[in-house]
Structures are given as C-alpha cells and as structure tokens.
Amino acid sequence: LSKRYDKLGSMTDLERAIMWTSAALDLRPKGHQRRGGSLNNLAHFLSKRYDELGSMTDLERAIELSAAALELRPEGHRNRDLPLYNLGGCLFRRYEKHGSTEDLERSIELSSAALELCPEGHPYRNDVCSLLDSARRRRKEHMRSIPHSLEITDE
Fold first, then answer.
1. What spatial distance separates the first Cα and last Cα of the chain, rounded to whole Å?
2. CB-based contacts of 67: which residues, under 8 Å, 6+ apart?
3. Residue from 4, 74, 75, 78 nearest 45 by CA
4. pLDDT digits (tens, 9 = 90+) for 73-98
5. 16-19: which pairs have CB atoms within 8 A and are 24 or more residues apart?
6. What number of CA atoms fall less than 13 Å from residue 140's CA on the CB side?
7. Whole-angstrom Cα distance, residue 81 to residue 91?
8. Residue 54 region, left (φ>0) first, then alpha (ψ -120 to 50), else beta?
9. What's this model's pTM, rounded to 2 decimal places?
C-alpha cells in the first residue's frame, strides 16, 4: 500500500497503510522484537498524511512514535538509521510550521547521526543528505535574520 501510495498518491492507500500498520502495532506489545519497526512505519505514514493534510495531530503523533522507535534502537542497533531520519524529518516539519529553533537543532543532530549510519550506496543516503542540507540552510537563514545590534561593546 505504501509503494502504491508513493506511485499513485491515493489517500485511500495511505489511510489503509495507517490502519493496517496501527493494527500490527497493537499485536506487538512492549518487548516484541518487531515493535520498533511498527512504531517507525506508523510514524512514517502519519508524517506522509501530515504532508498531505497538514494535521498537527498527525505530526505530533509521528514525533511521539518515532521517538519511541528510536528508544528501541540504541546506538549500535543495525536499524537505527531509519528512526533517526524519521524523527529528524518530523522535527524539521514542525520547525517549518512553528519556527522552534530547538526542533531545528534537534533535527540537524538526528539527521547528522543518521548520515553517519548511511554509507555511500545506502538506499536512504540521498534522502538523509537532502534533509540535513535543508535543515542546515534554514539554520543559516535563521542566523542571518538575528539582528547584529546585539553585539557586545566596551564602554
């Protein structure tokens, strides 16, 4: 359903992907070895729905689920790259909506960590690089917008 949504853009496919992934998550209680994957997948689909519909509820839930997935994939875990990337992307979207520099800085931190786990040839490397580049450009723009009149002077 996810691939078909990506190809055709059918909201019905996305809604079904959310419904089925949510059901799969319900079948994977805390401690289940595949719970992290289900958390990450559901977060991904909710962030896509946010991109389509703009519901902050979807984005906040995606952030919550991505953070939970990341907790289940500590440093050294072979699948840590995806929740780092997803959470970084969600925080960047929230920054774009609300302008919180804390979200922007955290997005850069998470995306940088994801990039370290995505060597040349990794299927998500280009996406991670794009996110990191966008976040760094926004930070640069933000820094330029801060008035320089705040400079310290000797008197």
1. 66
2. 87
3. 4
4. 999 999 999 999 999 999 999 999 99
5. 17/45, 18/42, 18/45, 18/46, 18/49
6. 6
7. 16
8. left
9. 0.88
